[in-house]
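Structure first, sequence second, as always.
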């Protein structure tokens, strides 16, 4: 018996609607509002809302924002600046500390 691909549960009209500029704008605003709400006071982004700050997720979102800029999509400057400030602090506090510790231990 052959199986047929049937696609998702969405109606074709719903899939086409994402091309509507008003719908796309509303979805973008909703997504940015969720990101703004999830961003921690340190400027980091967690894996889930209310979770601990994650340098990996923060870099992932910064990458997404940079790709948006490549395609001429405006990104929220304040959110990006706060995320980069977090990444700088994370680098200074943790990465450099670990490098100094490794160098002092003579493991180079």
């Amino acid at each position: 018996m052959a199986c047929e691909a049937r696609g998702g549960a969405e109606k074709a009209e719903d899939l086409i609607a994402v091309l509507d500029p008003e719908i796309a704008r509303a979805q973008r605003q909703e997504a940015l509002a969720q990101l703004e709400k999830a961003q921690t006071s340190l400027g980091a982004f967690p894996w889930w809302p209310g979770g601990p700050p994650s340098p990996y997720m923060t870099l992932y979102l910064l990458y997404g924002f940079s790709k948006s800029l490549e395609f001429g999509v405006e990104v929220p400057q304040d959110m990006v600046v706060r995320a980069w400030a977090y990444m700088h602090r994370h680098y200074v506090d943790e990465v450099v500390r670990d490098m100094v510790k490794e160098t002092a231990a003579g493991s180079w």
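Margin note: The mean pLDDT is 87.
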